[in-house]
Amino acid sequence: MAKPRQSRLRRAGLARAREAAGLTQEAFATRAGVEVSTVVRWESGCTTPLPGKRPQIARVLGVGLHDLERLLSPEVPQVQAQTQTQAVGWEGADDGRLAAIAGVREEIAKLTAEYEARPATGLVVPAVGLLGRVETLRECASGGSGDTQLPAIPAETFLDAAELSVSATSSAMSATGARLPAWSTSATASISSIPSMPSMASMPLSTLTPPRPAAPATTPIRWRRDLDVAEAEAALLVGRLLWDAAGRRDSSAAAEFFDRAARRAAQAGDSVLHVTVTLRAAFVGLYGGDPRAGVRRCVQAAVIAAPVSEALFALARLHAAEGHALLGNAAECDRALTTARGAMAAISPDDPSPGACPPRTYQRLAGAAYLALGRHTEARAALTEAAIRYEPGKTLAVVLGHLALACLGEGDTDAALRHVYTSVELAEAAQSVGALAVAFRAGREIVRSSDAAQPGTREVVDRLLAVLGG
């Protein structure tokens, strides 16, 4: 039975309009051309759709732009609205602060969307610049009594991170004797062309060293909350970019930013964002060689999500199952999967993130866990179901790469060849080095376990070499 939860939808009207159109969050995201997590953030009031995206959203919902603007206005309970009105009168006029913060958050959302559409290390510099603007807003809004100014990161830090991304990936794929694809190095080249960044040196950036938590406000003033959310969003994006730029090998810089984002999300009382950040920090451990630390983070995320969202709780338990599988702990993995299934069955209509853990996500992560445990038959069944439900893109490329490994584990080389070839095609189209690495791993295992002279095997090897050499 689903546990009663306090609804955290600040745009319940938007959610109702979507439901009236007969759309799930997943279907709405597909038609609007965004990720499901983006729709979740829209409906929970964490972010606002960019102006250029709104005509498409209005068409999907079957409403006019004027009606859409009304739906995008957050619905504040009467008691809370009264409290906020009193707080504004005590603090002074907040319109200027709110407008400035909203502008920065729009830019953060735009840069995040650009990164999710086509990852590039060249986005590190503008992302850090946005984080610096948030710091400046905090100092201005608090009259200079906010976080102390910390030394800025020199440009060389970002250049080194970008170059590390290429060298790390190249090292992992050195067995082919080929180069990285051109699209994976173009961003680094564009960053390296920047001789200096004097404007960044003057920014009050709290970067690799996390800031001291600001003193909590005595009243729920909206601009303070929005500023905390903006800093959490910016720090999350910078952490993701640095993690990718480091080739997912050096996690220290990314971890600092994820920790900072988690603190600000917690201070803002945004549980959805807090869980998102904590899971992102867990990925550093799960996919960076420290699954035990990753599992600990997943447990933290589950604890945060438990009183708020069954969907987010299920997602945290799924990633914990993946970590237990990487550690070879089959019993704990199965227990986590069972808990995740129970939470998914208990997702209620007022869950703030009902689309965070759809069946395909369960099948994808359960399949990866089974694969790590060497349970190839179970992995193949789960990943086959997941592959049917994903649209072409980098996630499907990863699923097919894992499916190829599962088929190979069962001795079905022909099926493995088909899946890995498609995986390579999708990874190249998505320009995803991570997806390409999974496809490469599958191709390498195929070469090791079969005759490299066979036409199918030779074709896959040639395709990988062509992609890496392009």
What does this structure look like?
The protein has 23 helices and no strands. With 470 residues, it is mostly helical. Residues 1-8, 76-93 and 145-220 have low confidence and may be disordered. It folds into 4 domains: 7-76, lambda repressor-like DNA-binding domains (434 Repressor (Amino-terminal Domain)); 98-211 and 221-265, no CATH class; 270-357; 390-470, no CATH class.
**Backbone CA Rg:** 23 Å
Number of helices: 23
Q: Which runs of at least 5 residues are low in confidence (pLDDT < 50)?
A: 1-8, 76-93, 145-220
Give the domain tally: 4
The total strand number stands at: 0
Largest sheet: number of strands, sense, barrel closure: none
Mean pLDDT: 76
> Helicity level, as a percent range?
55-70%
> What's the order of the H and E elements?
HHHHHHHHHHHHHHHHHHHHHHH
Distance between the termini: 54 Å
Give the percentage of residues in beta strands: under 5%
Overall outline: globular
Structural class: mainly alpha
What's a concise summary of this model?
This protein is mostly helical and 470 residues long.
Q: Which terms summarize this structure?
A:
470 residues, mainly alpha, 23 helices, Transcriptional regulator, XRE family, Cro/C1-type_HTH
Per-chain topology:
Layout: H1 12-20, H2 25-32, H3 36-44, H4 54-61, H5 65-71, H6 78-91, H7 95-117, H8 124-141, H9 155-172, H10 182-192, H11 198-201, H12 222-245, H13 252-268, H14 271-286, H15 291-305, H16 310-326, H17 330-345, H18 359-372, H19 376-389, H20 394-409, H21 413-430, H22 433-449, H23 455-469
Helix pairs in contact: 2-3, 7-8, 7-12, 8-12, 9-10, 12-13, 12-14, 13-14, 14-15, 14-16, 15-16, 16-17, 16-18, 17-18, 18-19, 18-20, 19-20, 20-21, 20-22, 21-22, 21-23, 22-23
